[in-house]
């Protein structure tokens, strides 16, 4: 199956540079326009359905994409929600490292839990929509952690993903292969990644499902 992880559209907190996490901030007008514009660049014939995280900004982005592409919305998944940043949510991202050196926020979801949680969502989607080609709307940090978990790289070394950036995965047997990162071929992103594992021999990052 093929699956694309798509970051949701802009919110007012994105615009103001605030840490968002699990706080359920809706899309703003620009975010809705971004979703409609992104749909024009997606080949509807390559995809079968749309899913999302359970947070409102992801659900609304998914609904707009589905309407524009005439695809069904086929569910929302708790394991696709953004990392919980605890007490840091609502704070200026520019001040985070000064206020919390090492980003040790009280109430924060552990970094090493985020990627495996996201991969669990992929596995559930693969079971519930076997063989389908799925657009999955989620969140920037969650997506980077998933990509890092799949490729064996530090998620912090993945580039920041813009709103509506699309990262494509392919499931081959029991493995997930990372094909693109924010629309850029994985092979082009690879030189900038910090390895904490091994890469597949053909240059496509791979993760074998448990």
UniProtKB/TrEMBL annotation:
Pfam families: His_Phos_1 (PF00300). InterPro entries: His_Pase_superF_clade-1, His_PPase_superfam, PG/BPGM_mutase_AS, PGM_Phosphatase. It comes from the Bacteria. CDD domains: HP_PGM_like (cd07067). PANTHER family: ADENOSYLCOBALAMIN_ALPHA-RIBAZOLE PHOSPHATASE (PTHR48100:SF59), BROAD-SPECIFICITY PHOSPHATASE YOR283W-RELATED (PTHR48100). This is Histidine phosphatase family protein.
């Amino acid at each position: 199956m093929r699956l694309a992880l798509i970051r949701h559209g802009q919110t007012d907190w994105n615009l103001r540079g605030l840490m968002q996490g699990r706080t359920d901030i809706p899309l703003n007008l620009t975010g809705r326009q971004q979703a409609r514009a992104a749909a024009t660049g997606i080949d509807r014939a390559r995809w079968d359905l749309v899913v999302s995280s359970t947070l409102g900004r992801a659900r609304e982005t998914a609904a707009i994409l589905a309407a524009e592409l005439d695809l069904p919305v086929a569910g929302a998944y708790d394991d696709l929600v953004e990392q919980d940043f605890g007490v840091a949510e609502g704070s200026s991202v520019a001040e985070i490292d000064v206020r919390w050196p090492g980003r040790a926020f009280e109430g924060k979801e552990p970094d090493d839990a985020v990627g495996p949680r996201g991969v669990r969502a992929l596995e559930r989607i693969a079971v519930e929509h076997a063989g389908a080609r799925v657009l999955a709307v989620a969140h920037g940090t969650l997506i980077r952690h998933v990509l890092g978990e799949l490729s064996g790289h530090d998620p912090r070394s993945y580039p920041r993903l813009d709103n509506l950036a699309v990262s494509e995965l392919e499931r081959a047997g029991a493995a997930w292969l990372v094909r693109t990162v924010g629309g850029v071929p994985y092979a082009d992103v690879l030189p900038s990644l910090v390895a904490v594992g091994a890469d597949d021999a053909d240059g496509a990052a791979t993760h074998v499902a448990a």
